[in-house]
Specification:
The structure is a single chain. The protein has helices at about 15-30, 40-60, 60-80, 85-90, 100-105, 110-115, 125-145, 150-165, 170-175, 195-210, 220-230, 235-245, 245-250, 250-270. It is an all-alpha fold. The chain has 2 domains: about 10-145, no CATH class; about 150-270, no CATH class. Helix 2 packs antiparallel against helix 7 (about 125-145).
């Protein structure tokens, strides 16, 4: 018969690092409902909250607390339902809540109740250590998130292309876009359709090349890409750019996925 092992008491020196790990896990869970282009915004919000609370810990006035509360309320108004997990994780408890250490399971309820009053909360030095660890982890996370983003000049070019498309009255692009039903934002590898973004653009090229669609003189890449945005939800601008550089998309992996799709289509046709 196994004898249950007795839980070791928490070493107080480890509390800031244990808490920082919990904080980062809750941040990662909260990130799930944020689209790629808004993830850095959540991260920047957390960094700003840490700075505000750092001031509050040093000078615990009502005014300093209101600065934090107003910051959170403004962020909630802006992002709404994206913050459901953020709220479920009770991120607010990290910012000076007296029950933080028991709420985040650093101590059990019995252990926490057995502590002296001052030990039930972080002292200023412990809080400073906690903020320092969280801040460094968020800085590193921000570095990796920014490396995944498009350069600013490419974003500006994409916005100009979108503006240009919208400014063309009654053009085929605007007419086609009026039929768009998909309201979400597709990611390149989100698996909402059987081909990813690159593979979809490559299929477009082959279908046009083999005469399924009109040729270049009667159907330009832009119009074809808008039609495929309606059908797949992928950004027409990204599809257009990828079709224009189709040679880079002809990787063994992409060709294999398109070949697999054509095999499935053939089997479906033969079944009738």
């Amino acid at each position: 018969m196994d004898v249950p092992t007795e839980k070791k008491p928490v070493n107080r020196r480890h509390v800031p690092s244990l808490l920082a790990r919990k904080y980062m896990k809750d941040y990662e869970a909260s990130l799930v409902d944020f689209p790629e282009n808004k993830k850095v915004e959540l991260l920047e919000h957390l960094l700003e909250c840490l700075a505000i609370i750092e001031t509050y810990v040093a000078d615990s006035t009502t005014e300093n607390w209101k600065t934090y509360a107003n910051k959170e309320n403004a962020f909630l108004k802006k992002h709404g339902k994206r913050l459901k997990i953020y709220n479920q994780k009770k991120m607010y408890t990290y910012y000076g809540d007296s029950t933080l250490l028991v709420e985040k399971d650093i101590y059990t309820a019995d252990e926490w109740n057995a502590l002296g009053g001052e030990m039930q909360t972080l002292n200023p030095n412990e809080y400073a250590d906690f903020i320092h660890l969280c801040r460094n982890s968020l800085y590193l996370e921000r570095h990796y998130l920014l490396l995944e983003q498009s350069p600013e000049d490419e974003k500006e070019a994409e916005e100009k292309d979108k503006s240009k498309g919208l400014s063309e009255p009654l053009s085929e692009v605007n007419i086609l876009q009026s039929f768009k039903k998909f309201k979400g934002k597709r990611e390149a590898h989100d698996k909402k359709t059987c081909l990813n973004q690159e593979q979809t653009a490559l299929l477009m090229y082959y279908l046009q090349h083999e005469g399924v669609f009109l040729k270049d003189e009667n159907l330009d890449d832009k119009t074809m890409s808008v039609a495929f945005e309606i059908l797949t939800g992928y950004s027409f601008n990204t599809l257009r750019q990828t079709v224009g550089k189709f040679a880079k998309s002809r990787t063994p992996e992409n060709l294999k996925e398109i070949s697999k799709l054509l095999t499935h289509l053939k089997e479906a046709v033969e079944k009738g």
